[in-house]
Design brief:
Elements lengths: L1 H12 L19 E2 L5 E6 L6 E6 L1 H20 L7
Antiparallel strand pairs: 1-2, 2-3
Keywords: Signal
Length: 85
């Protein structure tokens, strides 16, 4: 309890920053490496495995994959069966 009060006092005494700090990047979006062929490689977690796999695609392919994934989620949400309570 005392530590909470002290932390609140320290927080209140601190001067506000001139500009807010940028949000840290998401954990899934790690640093991407672009090789000489224009491929962007990312390490992705695989379901059912502790090992991550390396996936390399062009930026256009990554964008198309993001659109396809979003469409798949939206379609699954639209086609939910009716449940009465």
């Amino acid at each position: 309890m005392i530590s909470l009060v002290l932390a609140a006092a320290l927080f209140a005494a601190a001067e506000p920053a001139a500009a807010p700090a940028a949000a840290p990047p998401a954990k899934a979006a790690k640093v991407e490496k672009v090789n000489k062929d224009g491929l962007i490689c990312r390490k992705e977690a695989q379901i059912g495995s502790r090992m991550k796999t390396r996936t390399c695609m062009t930026q256009e392919q990554w964008d198309a994959r993001a659109v396809d994934d979003r469409d798949m989620v939206e379609q699954a949400q639209r086609n939910k069966p009716y449940q009465s309570n």
